[in-house]
């Protein structure tokens, strides 16, 4: 299990060390337009799961949404502090 800070740190590490076979590296390389579409897709899946599929499924979709948000933050060099100051 990971916290958001941990998944952000993992994505940031993938960006620097670029291990072979990493889906995160592939997504970072695909760029902000691709990542943005993933975020919109996952946000819709969160909504559908919460409305029609139940909390287990919604929680799974939320985890994917958080992952793609972390990837976007790293791709754009947005720090956790920059986000948290608005929370
Ligand atoms: N948490 C995630 C995570 N969530 C989602 N994804 C990626 O996002 C894809 C899901 O997006 P899609 O839109 O294709 O999914 P989907 O078909 O809509 O699937 P559902 O939403 O219907 O379940 C998955 O195939 C993964 O590639 C993730 N990829 C990685 N992680 C974490 O990042 C770590 C490092 O991953 P790598 O860089 O690939 O080693 C992993 O160990 C995990 O902890």
Structure description:
The protein is mostly helical. It has a single domain, classed as Helix Hairpins (Orthogonal Bundle). It is 80% helix and 0% strand. It is built from 5 helices and no strands. Helix 1 crosses helix 4 and helix 3 packs antiparallel against helix 4. The longest helix is centred in the middle third of the chain and has 22 residues. The model has no long low-confidence stretch (mean pLDDT 98). The structure holds phosphoribosyl ATP. The site of phosphoribosyl ATP has 12 residues, from helix 1, helix 2, helix 3 and helix 4. Keywords: Amino-acid biosynthesis, ATP-binding, Cytoplasm, Histidine biosynthesis, Hydrolase, Nucleotide-binding. Its EC number is 3.6.1.31. It is found in: Cytoplasm. It catalyses: 1-(5-phospho-beta-D-ribosyl)-ATP + H2O = 1-(5-phospho-beta-D-ribosyl)-5'-AMP + diphosphate + H(+). This is Phosphoribosyl-ATP pyrophosphatase.
Topology:
Layout lengths: L3 H14 L5 H8 L1 H22 L1 H21 L4 H5 L3
The site of phosphoribosyl ATP (PRT) has 12 residues, from helix 1, helix 2, helix 3 and helix 4.
